[in-house]
Amino acid sequence: MYILNIETATKNCSVALAKDGTTIVCKEIAEQGYSHAEKLHVFIEEIIKEAGISMSDLAAIAVSQGPGSYTGLRIGVSTAKGFCYALGIPLIAVDTLASLANQAVVEDGLIIPMIDARRMEVYSAIFNSKNEMIREVQAEVLTEDSFSNFSETIYFVGDSNEKAKTVLTKSNFVFLDQFIFPSAKQMSALSFRKFQQNNFEDVAYFEPYYLKDFMFAK
């Protein structure tokens, strides 16, 4: 049972083919900035060919639902919806921060994935060591008091780590700098679980998850 996973919420243009929840082929690139329009369909074609299957063998398409880049999300969602409509297969939405958090494997403490917005702003959520979300996605401005109410070890992942280090300096804060961008590889298990639960989106009406713009006092 094959699911094609598409991740375009950040600079990483990432596509992975999964069989029964396990990634078998993945192609991605982040170094060239936002190259989704040029690379996404190329990666999909290459993955299908490399796996030796056809698009008709797909059971579903999964797409990163956000938060993230407006343009990147629109490209990924439009592509996923187009394939689902043409093939008559379900659309699965995967939380972007959940797949980013899924890259970190820790025995205890909390995982906080953060996606860079602008200035000191981030999109973040909080997960426990079992990768279960315990605080919903929020748009917030980082300060030295952010997450200070937690005493356990907190592991930060994402492309906001460098700027976060300038204000998040408490001894229980650990930055896992090897995990920068969400990847379609980490979507595989999450999308398979949703497929088994028949947790599908309406292809006609599904929209990416956009958070409201940050508001500043003048």
Low-pLDDT runs: 214-218
Rg (CA only):
17 Å
For the biggest sheet, the summary is:
5 strands, mixed
N- and C-termini, Cα separation:
54 Å
Separate helix tally: 5
Structural class: alpha/beta
Q: Could you spell the SSE succession in H and E letters?
A: EEEHEHEHEEEEHEH
Structure, briefly:
The chain contains five helices and ten strands; from the N terminus they run βββαβαβαββββαβα.
Task: Describe this entry's structure for a reader.
Strand 2 (13-19) and strand 3 form a beta hairpin. The chain has helices spanning 36-51, 70-87, 96-101, 161-164, 187-196, and strands at residues 2-7, 13-19, 22-29, 58-64, 91-94, 110-116, 121-128, 133-141, 154-158, 173-175. By secondary structure, it is α/β, with parallel strands linked by helices. The protein contains five helices and ten strands. A five-stranded mixed beta sheet has the order 3-2-1-4-5, with helices on both faces. Strands 8-7-6-9-10 form a five-stranded mixed beta sheet. The radius of gyration is 17 Å and the shape is globular.
